[in-house]
Write a structure and sequence with these properties.
about 40% helix; 9 helices; TIM Barrel; single chain; alpha/beta
């Protein structure tokens, strides 16, 4: 499996510095969530910014363009803009969220169809993350069953389904070959909350998740998601990114 990192880990880095760090640290690619330290809004980027960022990203394998799109809200125009930007920047994946748990899946499936038509024309996969109202893999699987198209897949964040009682084998059993991308992180339970910690120091069954993926035939990307943008108290990227990569590569080699 190849390993990328999300630039959530380095909100203070310029894009040029982030791209350079991927090679310097030994990562295989980059997952892009931020631009100038802020979440990317594809529809709001001016042409000059798009061109400058695109030139920088040409020096790295861009694994995914991570958006804030939520499928339970009106998303059609946002998704169209994100697909166009992903194609311009040379990635074949756009990450989206499901949103809340209260929208009928049939309605989401119907509204997705035009965007998935566009995604297929552009050669892009829309990856729905196990997050928020869709944190359970079984919920994501319900939508994927309604939308049986190659342009819609799952992004497994190993933390969130576990929080809701799903084991790694439950997740792989529910999502199977529709797993397109994996987010790797660890956390320790503190009462009703979770605190992010270095890989191997928490309660999330990350190594078991890797084993389940391999048994299921997955050989795609794994992204280290060190969420310093949302949790400023976390270690700096110069410390965290080499450490997380070393741990993850060690586990991959040992399994």
């Amino acid at each position: 499996m190849k390993i990328a990192f999300s630039n959530l880990a380095a909100p203070g880095w310029t894009l040029d510095r982030t791209v350079a760090a991927a090679g310097e640290l030994g990562y295989d690619g980059l997952e892009l969530r931020l631009l100038d330290g802020e979440p990317i809004e594809p529809a709001g980027l001016d042409p000059a910014t798009r061109r400058t960022a695109g030139a920088a990203l040409a020096e790295v394998t861009l694994v995914s363009l991570d958006t804030s799109i939520e499928l339970t809200r009106p998303f059609e125009r946002e998704l169209e803009a994100a697909l166009e930007l992903a194609a311009e920047w040379g990635t074949s994946t756009v990450r989206v969220f499901g949103g809340t748990h209260d929208s009928p899946l049939d309605n989401i499936a119907r509204r997705l169809e035009p965007g998935l038509d566009a995604a297929e024309r552009l050669g892009i996969t829309v990856a729905l993350e196990t997050h928020d109202g869709f944190a359970r893999a079984t919920r994501v699987a319900e939508l994927l069953q309604r939308v049986d198209r190659p342009s819609l897949a799952a992004l497994w964040d190993v933390h969130h389904p576990y929080r809701f009682g799903e084991s790694p084998h439950d997740v792989v059993g529910a999502l199977g070959s529709r797993i397109h991308l994996v987010h790797i992180k660890d956390a320790v339970r503190r009462g009703d909350d979770w605190q992010l910690v270095p890989l191997g120091e928490g309660d999330v069954p990350v190594r078991e998740s890797i084993d389940a993926l391999r048994l299921g035939g997955y050989d795609g990307w794994m992204t280290v998601e060190w969420e310093k943008r949302w949790h400023p108290e976390l270690a700096e990227p110069e410390v965290a990114l080499p450490r997380e990569l070393a741990t993850l590569r060690g586990w991959l080699e040992a399994s």
